[in-house]
């Protein structure tokens, strides 16, 4: 059984579950750090495993561009290429191309066939289709593959939003067909999840889900931005989308997020999460601790002999002082990013352990209040 629902919290919609993959089981709720280009920045796969991280997200578009999915496939897939023995989820590519088109001067175009885009490294032109997206993900050997979708911001026009939903349905149907063909041809055991679009329009959200559900997928994800233009968590929209999804299928809140938003999304019924925040913030000396946020570059930590977090059991907290870490960051030592990333990922792993224990113990609502009080 690929997904087993073990328990549901009595006071919220939080769920305890287990996802089974060829590379091991993942207890949910679970957080996946981004190994965008086949690595979580600044740390090795062994260090990553030591943080208690159960699963990774890797980027289909970037690995397609460099070093190329054929090369990775010749090594036996991404697991062997990066020496990671745990499960891997790969994205479909829609959001990444959207980001490339809208955050740079690179040209791009969305058509019924797929997405045209330029490489950020050399400007070369490419077309990613729903079929090619699956072919790349099969070469990478991902345990969970995402269908190709058309991502739009929550504030787009109604016409553009509706077109996005129509394209997402069309592309997802084609992705499902190619996934089934490649599964049979390669004998590869994996699953495919679909991404529910619709922006902030509830009717379009329901239309998107209903059409994807009719096609049939192994799991479903919230697509689009989890926050508004001012950074406020879109709790009502995200909760509405979760309520559309089947009870006995995994629910993935893509791009969520801060510890507080993860805890709130778990209460809404989501099982999987990913975000760049813990690793990106670590590289800038911004740490999550049991007492809230700690910004290590501040002068007040210059002579501080304490660990980052006295309650944390990570290698960084067991070994180094705040004063030493502050010194590393302030002189630009690369070791700073490594030690910081180890801590933040261990914080997230421990947070998810606490979440699962609280659901099992019937105390999840209390944990929600504690985490939200920290405003992190």
Describe the structure.
The chain has 376 residues and is α/β, with parallel strands linked by helices. The chain has an eight-stranded parallel beta sheet. β15 and β16 form a beta hairpin. The longest helix is centred in the middle third of the chain and has 29 residues. The mean pLDDT is 95.
Short description:
By secondary structure, this protein is α/β, with parallel strands linked by helices. It is built from 15 helices and 16 strands. The chain has helices at residues 45-50, 60-65, 69-74, 78-82, 94-102, 130-140, 158-186, 202-215, 235-244, 259-268, 277-283, 315-319, 322-331, 334-361, 364-374, and strands at residues 3-8, 15-21, 24-28, 30-33, 56-58, 88-90, 108-110, 115-118, 125-128, 144-146, 191-196, 219-222, 251-253, 272-275, 286-289, 292-295.
């Amino acid at each position: 059984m690929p997904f087993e629902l073990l328990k549901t919290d009595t006071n919220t919609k939080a769920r305890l579950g287990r996802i089974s993959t060829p590379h091991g089981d993942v207890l949910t709720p679970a957080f996946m750090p981004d190994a965008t280009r086949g690595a979580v920045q600044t740390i090795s796969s062994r260090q990553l495993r030591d943080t208690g991280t159960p699963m990774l997200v890797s980027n289909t578009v970037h690995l397609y561009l460099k070093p190329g999915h054929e090369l990775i496939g010749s090594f036996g897939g991404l697991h062997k290429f990066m020496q990671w023995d745990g499960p891997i989820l790969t994205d479909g590519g829609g959001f990444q191309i959207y980001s490339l088109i809208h955050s740079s001067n690179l040209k791009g175009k969305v058509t019924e066939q797929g997405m045209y885009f330029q490489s950020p490294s050399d400007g070369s032109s490419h077309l990613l289709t729903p079929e090619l997206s699956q072919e790349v993900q099969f070469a990478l050997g991902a345990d969970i593959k995402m269908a190709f979708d058309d991502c739009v911001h929550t504030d787009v026009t109604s016409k553009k939003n509706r077109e996005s939903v129509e394209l997402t349905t069309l592309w997802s149907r084609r992705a499902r067909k190619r996934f089934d063909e490649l599964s049979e041809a390669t004998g590869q055991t994996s699953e495919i999840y679909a991404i529910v679009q619709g922006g902030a329009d509830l009717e379009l959200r329901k239309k998107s889900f209903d059409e994807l559900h009719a096609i049939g997928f192994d799991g479903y994800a919230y697509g689009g931005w989890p926050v508004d233009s001012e950074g406020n968590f879109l709790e009502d929209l995200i909760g509405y989308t979760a309520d559309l999804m089947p009870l006995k299928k995994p629910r993935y809140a893509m791009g969520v997020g801060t510890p507080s938003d993860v805890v709130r999304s778990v209460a809404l019924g989501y099982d999987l999460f990913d975000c760049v925040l813990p690793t990106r913030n670590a590289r800038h000396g911004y740490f999550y601790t049991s007492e809230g946020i700690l910004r290590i570059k501040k002068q007040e930590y210059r002579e501080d002999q304490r660990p980052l977090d006295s309650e944390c059991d990570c290698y960084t907290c067991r070994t180094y002082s705040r004063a030493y870490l502050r010194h590393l960051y302030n002189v630009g030592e690369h070791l700073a990013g490594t030690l910081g990333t180890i801590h933040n990922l261990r914080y997230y792993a421990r947070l998810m352990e606490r979440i699962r224990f609280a659901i099992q113990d019937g105390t999840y609502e209390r944990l929600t209040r504690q985490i939200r009080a920290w405003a992190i």
